[in-house]
Amino acid sequence: MSPSNQGPSGDVEAEFVFIHPPADGSPASVDGDKINEKHITQCSVHDIRGEELLYNLQTHAFQAIRNVSSNANYQTWDSEEEIKRIYYPEVERLLIQNVPGAHSVIFLGHGVRKQGNKEHRQPIRYVHVDHTDQAAKDFIKELADPNVLSERLRHRHRIISVWRPINGAVESEPLAFVAANTLEKAHLHPVQYQRNGVSTSFTAVKHNPDLQWMYWSEMQNDERLLLKCTDSALTNNDRAPHSAFDHSRSPIDAKPRESIEVRALVFG
What we know:
By secondary structure, the chain is α+β, with helices and mostly antiparallel strands. It has helices at residues 57-60, 80-98, 133-143, 149-154, and strands at residues 12-19, 28-31, 34-35, 38-47, 62-65, 104-114, 157-165, 175-178, 188-195, 198-205, 213-215, 224-231, 242-244, 258-267. Belongs to the asaB hydroxylase/desaturase family.
């Protein structure tokens, strides 16, 4: 499927919210939508449309894949059971086929986001990576077969998120992501996250003018964006921070963005 020319495209300047560690030394935290220390700044965002083959998971921690068939329809996304029955096997095949060395997958969950619909999650408007390195190890200990646990921990494992729109070309709040080869580990830090009494953690990044921001304009239902969150085999280029953003050229009557991301542990 080709871009529809309905959504915004081309390089653009956009505002991003960075979570910073508080000056008093306390941990960075997000409670619901409240961030205890943030930095808002304008960044240049490059449109990778037409350049998809220039980027890969190993160097940039993201990969753009076109022309992906699916048996899921719009009604699928309203059913947890149908998502797992229909879409999870498709994602597993996609990961095995496109992640070098991958031989097995354990799913961590998924999120359906519908902009403006209060019954669903909303696009996240601060720069983040979904998981921490420690979370990857904890997930393996929790989910892996005990008979192969030590082997799983010893060999390469990655957390990868597979992102796609579910209601056609993205016209508003596209997803921007950082090329991992422009990211320094020193700028990463953990964030404590709480919502509705549930506590977890994720990784944030302090603002750095050297970060190279990208987005894939007018993403279609048959396109998939792979975003790496952790990689046990690499000390650099191992994750792609990302965030939704307001595109200055989005149409006034742009349809709300609806999307799904599926997160998985990928072994091999």
